[in-house]
Amino acid sequence: MTRDEALDKIKKCLALAASPEAHEAAAAMRQAQKLMAQFGLSEEDVTLADVAEVRQQAQNVPMVRWEASLAFMVAQAFGCETFTMQRLQLGSGRKMRRQRTYVFVGVGPAPEVAGYAFDVLVRQCAKDRRRYIGLQSKNCKAKTKVARGDLYAEGWIAGVSDKLDQFAGNARDAALIARYMEQNHSGLEAANIKSRVRGKNVTHNDWHQGRAAGRQVELNQGVQGRAAQPLLTA
To answer: What distances in angstroms separate CA 203 from CA 33, 102, 145, 147, 187, one per listed residue?
Structure first.
């Protein structure tokens, strides 16, 4: 039995320990305590086992503002924390390539749903951004097209956010996530995201067109049995 399997069994035993049948409850509690001692697990270890993390690949290797903003918005919507990381992975032709991922940390099914929502939305936003860049004049400089595309994407995210109900989290989950982050990711540092828009030939129209497109994204209610939790589809 692995540590994770033991944690899962302990949680089931603790659930049975709440049984009104005294004999059954006592037996379940003894089994839970035995497994905790066998695997060197504390009560906090068992509690933190409710916290999970899900990783989703980013569309960009460099950290760009619109994509980071989308990850943060989705995390907030589903009561999660998020951070990003970059690492080397073996690609085609046995060449090492850099890859960026966004990590969603939450309780129960929340991080899985957040990761799915981010994956759907980041693909759609990137697709719409590319289409918008393609509409720019051929005389536009490449950096100008990138800047306009970024501003469009930021507006797109604002349009989605306008339609998105925030997840009603609770203090217990927030405390669990904070403790998990402290135990597992205490070395994280604040990211410095360089703006590709500042100082470029962009207009408010770029942002507003993006917002209009973002408002066309459909948001459907209900997923994983949670009422009032939004599922985003594009």
So the answer is: 64, 29, 12, 10, 39
